[in-house]
Amino acid sequence: MNPRYTVRCPDPRRHQWRVSVTVEQPDPAGQRFCLPVWIPGSYLVREYARHVVQAHAESADQPVALVKVDKHSWLAAPCSGPLTLHLTVYARDESVRGAYVDDQRAYFNGAAILPWVVGQSDGPQALHIERPTDTCAVGWQVATAMSSVTVDADGFGDYTAADYDELIDHPVEVSAWQSVAFEAAGTPHRIVVSGQHHGDLARLAADVQRVCEWQIGLFGGQAPFASYTFLLLATSNGYGGLEHRASTSLIARRDHLPRARGHDDKGYRSLLGLFSHEYFHSWLVKRIKPADFAPYDLAGENLTRQLWLFEGFTSYYDDLALRRSGVIDTPTYLELLAETISRVHAVPGHRVQTLEDASLDAWIKYYRPDENTPNVAVSYYAKGSLVALALDLHLRRETAGRVSLDTVMQALWAQHAEAPLHDGDFEALAEAVSGLSLAAFFERALRTTETLPLPDLLAATGVDWRWSAGKAAANDTPEPAMAALGAKVSTSGAARVSHITPDGAAQRAGLAVGDEIIAMDGWRVDATSLPELLKALAPGQTVSVHSARDGRLREAELTLDAAPADTCTLALTASDDPMLLQQRAAWLGA
Fold this sequence. Notes:
- Helices cover 28% and strands 27% of the residues.
- By secondary structure, it is of the alpha+beta class.
- The strands form 7 sheets. Strands 5-4-8-2-1-12-15-14 form an 8-stranded mixed β-sheet.
- A hairpin with a 3-residue loop joins strand 20 and strand 21 (247-253).
- It is globular.
């Protein structure tokens, strides 16, 4: 017999999951149980065991001694018969990475509440989801991509997974959710939405369907799963997603859902990009894996130098899939691409940290940002997507369109769907598929902080690239040089410094993160008035600054910088070159 789990939330207002796991044949030397310390796809030690409120064990209705042996493990004393471990887990993490229970909904990732049974995690696992009886749970249903065995009309009952890794790779939503279904390439899909909203789910499904069909087509036309579930939580303020093998958990602002009578176009594009990003992970990271993740070690950090590929290239294709599927037009796609370019170049860290180092340090830097992070770190998501763009355009140019990044990704799927990817494997594959020598490209892109040759590559594809300071210019009229503080401040309330640019005006004047700027140039300022005052000042002008730190007033002279040209705009160039137009259309799908 294999481990059998039962989960229930008898009193949702207590914000607790009650978890039981029964082992028919426990280890005769004492059975060990362990909770993961992290969840695959989110590279931070989260210490799920810290949410365990109570733990006890029993066998044949008699207590069994249970000892916590380290931060995430429990050891039950030897016993001859079936052994059951009981955990009470506090659940108030509304993110896509944890577990949550209240009188409106219940949700869990298996990694957050289901311990693995040491020595019995490789075989089948059974899960029973018990129907809550509290009156607040009337109308609740279960939504999950896990395989059901025997369930009632609302999805409560028995489920099964091939092993523990699969068990925790199917998040579970329990609430009075709404759903909409569609097929993509003949495969059933559904979008399950919990939380209050006024979204047009039919419109959402139609757009997501187009994106899914394009992605399935990219990888050969056959989905790698029998069905797929999007679990979306609509909230007042939130954004994020986490990929799983046949589903994804998403969280987004409710006003970003489409509405029949007008909606936030930019917010909706962002939501569609989130759907696209997590869905693309169905191939890249859920099946094509870095060797460092095969298998996952759930007891500690799993370091890899390849997140630039698994997250960065996914980030390239998430918006590109929106364009190629026809969900957005070309100007909108170029706007999104320009925003990514601007975001990378606006932070000094892109000149300090390489992409391979950013990947390796994800656990201690990207997922643990502080006041200095923008100065010393680069996003493997954003810059990784620009490496993908550069590689795509380079391949298209050097092979006259014979090979593109699409070609490489298709070969990657064909060769590595079941064969983990070691460092250097992707680089070798790209060379083999294209017939090009790409060593210099990858050395520059991954292991140095040199700027990518994107302006030249985009120009060769008929896309004009321009820089401006602060915001994109509406026309070609030069704007006056703007003054810059060399710091970021809070957006409301007091003008409190949140980031200092290295060697910038604020740092030279002795300002630090956390300081409150009280007055500048003799004028009282706050978070709203300070940016307006800066517009009236000129680069090179020296002004007095009054600030407060740790309750003490400070005064300094500050010489303003010129605002850097760090805002990118992209636009199609007029051309009658048939080769260029053909290459551009092949890239953009238009």
